[in-house]
């Protein structure tokens, strides 16, 4: 298969990314022949290897998050990444973080670290589709973060968060579906006024 022919086919199919299995079907090549061809296509600027076994047509402008969300289904963007998008976390996280019901797993896409963190099946809610990916609501992203903070899985600098954009009503409603230790931690934060600018959620939205 000629390089230009492959590029036209990939652009027509227009998938977020292509796996080795995808390219085997498209080209009809054996696995060994495909690896040889892929090396040539990458060097020739036809396709880009963005992660192990993951390829895109060269020049594709698809956001990394949109590629990442297809790697490990089901998932939704949450934790620090979602909080940063909502300007609740005043930092840009180094790692893009997703919630999943599967085992925790890490990927690297275009030199960007991607982490899929396992949450309980009953906590897989509170998200919606935006710009081609599922993303947690602000309140759910915050509670997802607390779910990991309380268990010592991650740390959160409360001086770097601003919860004034959150709905205290939604937080309390969602928190009822979390384990008791998360609810207790959330209420304790509120009583102590430990959440920085928002004073523990006491001044959150209505």
Short description:
By secondary structure, the protein is of the alpha+beta class. The chain has two domains: 3-61, Arc Repressor Mutant, subunit A; 66-192, no CATH class. The chain has helices spanning 3-13, 20-27, 31-43, 64-68, 79-85, 138-150, 168-175, 180-192, and strands at 18-19, 47-51, 54-57, 76-77, 96-100, 105-109, 112-118, 127-130, 133-136.
Q: What is the C-alpha radius of gyration, as a whole number of Å?
A: 21 Å
Flag low-confidence runs.
Answer: 193-206
The class by helix and strand makeup works out as alpha+beta
Task: Kindly estimate the percentage of residues that lie in beta strands according to DSSP.
Answer: 15-25%
Question: H/E series, N to C?
Answer: HEHHEEHEHEEEEEHHH
The total of beta strands comes to 9
**Mean pLDDT figure:** 87
- Main sheet: strands, sense, barrel: 4 strands, mixed
How does this model look, in words?
Helix content is 38%, strand content 18%. With 206 residues, the chain is an alpha+beta fold. It folds into 2 domains: 3-61, Orthogonal Bundle (Arc Repressor Mutant, subunit A), CATH 1.10.10; 66-192, no CATH class. Strand 8 and strand 9 (133-136) form a beta hairpin.
């Amino acid at each position: 298969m000629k390089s230009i022919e492959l590029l036209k086919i990939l652009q027509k199919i227009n998938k977020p990314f292509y796996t080795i299995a995808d390219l085997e079907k498209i080209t009809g090549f054996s696995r060994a022949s495909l690896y040889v061809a892929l090396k040539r296509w990458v060097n020739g600027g036809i396709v880009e290897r963005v992660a192990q076994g993951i390829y895109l047509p060269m020049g594709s402008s698809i956001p990394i998050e949109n590629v990442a969300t297809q790697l490990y289904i089901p998932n939704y963007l949450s934790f620090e990444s979602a909080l940063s998008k909502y300007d609740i976390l005043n930092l840009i996280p180094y790692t893009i973080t997703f919630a999943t019901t599967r085992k925790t797993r890490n990927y690297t896409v275009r030199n960007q670290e991607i982490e899929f963190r396992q949450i309980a099946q009953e906590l897989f809610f509170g998200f919606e589709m935006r710009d081609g990916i599922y993303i947690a609501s602000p309140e759910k992203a915050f509670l997802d973060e607390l779910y990991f903070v309380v268990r010592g899985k991650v740390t959160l600098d409360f001086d770097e968060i601003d919860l004034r954009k959150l709905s205290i009503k939604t937080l309390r409603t969602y928190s009822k579906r979390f384990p008791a230790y998360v609810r207790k931690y959330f209420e304790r934060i509120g009583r102590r006024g430990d959440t920085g600018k928002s004073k523990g959620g006491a001044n959150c939205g209505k």
